[in-house]
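As agreed, record minuted below.
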Amino acid sequence: MDSRILLPALLLVFGLATVLAQTAAPGIACETKNGTSCDECLKNVTCLWCIKTRSCVTYPVRTILPPHALCPLSEARWGLCWMNFQALIITLAVIGGIIIIAFLICLFCCCKCENAGSKRFEDKMQRQANKTKTKQEERKSEMKQRHEEIRKKYGLSGQNQYSKFA
C-alpha cells in the first residue's frame, strides 16, 4: 500500500483510538468547564470545545455535526484539540473517495484482465484447433495419395471393375 495513503489513515485511526480511549466523567457537566483550556474540556468525551467563544458545551448527539449557531465547524474541537470538524470531514471524504476509486479501478482491472485471459485462452484453443485440422487434412491427403499409388501399382487406377455388375 502506498505510504501517502497509509500515513494519514494511521493518524486517523490513532486519533480516533485516542478519542475512544478517553473515559467520560459521569456527572460532570461540560458547561462547568467554561473558561478553562481545550485539553481540560476534552477530557470528557461528551464535551465539545469552541475556540471562538472559548466555551465548553455538551456535544449535541442528536445531530451528527454541531449546528453553526452552537459553534462553526472550523472552530469546533472534539476529542483532540488540534483536529477541527471541517478538516475531519474533508479528510474522511477524501479517504472515502480514494477507497471507492481504488475499488472501482481494481474491479475494472480484474474484469478486464479476466476477459483478456479468456480471449487469450479462446485464441489459443482456436489456433490449436486450426493446427489439428490442418494436420488431419494433410494426413488425409497423404492417405489418398498412398491409396492412388497402390491402385496404380496393381493396375486398379481406372473405374471399379465390379461397378458394371451393379
